[in-house]
Amino acid sequence: MPVLPLSLFVALILLYLLARAHIRGEIPPLMRAGIGLCALQAIIIAGNQHYHLTWLGAVQPVTAGAIPALLFTGFLSAARRRLSWGRDSWHFAGPALTFFTAVFATPALDIVIPFLFLSYGSAILIILKDGPDAALQERLEEVGISIRVWRLLGTFLILSAFGDMLIALDYLYGQGHYAPLIHAFSNSLTLLALGLAGLSASTRPVLETSALTTPAGDERHGTDEEIITRLEKLMESGQVYQNPDLTLAQLARKLTLPVKALSGAINRQTGMNVSQFVNGYRIKAACRLLEQPETNVTEAMLASGFQTKSNFNREFKRVTGKSPSAWRAVSNTIS
């Protein structure tokens, strides 16, 4: 009776979940690519170890070396800032180093690949070391992705590094007797965990109840009602929501308020987090644009402050209950 290898089973799970999230528009492109690469890596492992496609052994370390860089840049683009070629092209160095090592110094792969996973996983955790305050620089296009999910992603990258180290130690001191078993379970389960963490980070979370029970703010900065009134005036007159890179810290500076006073007032007065509040204005602006026949959906998305269709479609449905095209059809029928 044919037995499905664990790594191939993991690949099928990831591909199914990835396809479902893609159809629902719940995942940014870079995270989609990172999860897809995790699925591809699981397929490569299965082909190399279980189906005797030995040529995949040369591909396996190169694709493995690309996973941490791709997931990290996905984290940056989803939670921190837009990527730029000049600032972020150096992330190609990791996969390039892996390729060079695989060709010219194969034994050193046991050092290079764990180093990459450990470095990128640690980088995510270091960025998030300030806890909730780490969200201050997050782009408000994103909808309050839980910091716990990003921490899980960083932790799984580090655990993968330790799994690779364990395999190397088995070859060094135990002639590699347990390496295939360690490799199968460690890599497969880690790839599954990375993929699931990436999918969790890319889907809309439920607003945490702690945000709704934030203690009343310091009235030296004004009451919650006064803060919201000032914020609404800024949003309506300055149209700051059109800036796709707008962050909570920038918004607080414009109002000369501490970030905690601003976010707390929004939580208590509206029951929303800051991202949802700002995106509400963006969706209203998009609706006004969609009422104009000459404006297409992509133009409305970009002009209202969104950069990705997945976030735009998700937030549009949250606010209006319909997709942009369905909303336009109903609007045209009414008018």
Question: What order do the helices and strands come in, and which of them pair?
Answer:
Layout (H helix, E strand, L loop, with lengths): L5 H18 L5 H21 L6 H24 L5 H4 L4 H12 L4 H19 L19 H28 L4 H24 L6 H4 L11 H15 L9 H7 L4 H12 L3 H17 L6 H7 L5 H12 L3 H11 L1
Helix pairs in contact: 1-2, 1-8, 2-3, 2-8, 3-5, 3-6, 5-6, 6-7, 7-8, 10-12, 13-14, 13-15
How does this model look, in words?
With 335 residues, the protein is mostly helical. It is 70% helix and 0% strand. The protein contains 16 helices and no strands. The longest helix is centred in the middle third of the chain and has 28 residues, at 147-174.
* Rg, Å, rounded: 23 Å
Contiguous uncertain segments of 5+ residues: 202-214
The coarse overall form would be elongated
Q: How many strands, which pairing sense, and closed or not: the largest β-sheet?
A: none
Instruction: Name the helicity range.
Output: over 70%
CATH architecture of the largest domain: Up-down Bundle
Keywords: DNA-binding, Membrane, Transcription, Transcription regulation, Transmembrane, Transmembrane helix
InterPro entries: Homeodomain-like_sf, HTH_AraC
GO molecular function, one term: sequence-specific DNA binding
Protein name: AraC family transcriptional regulator
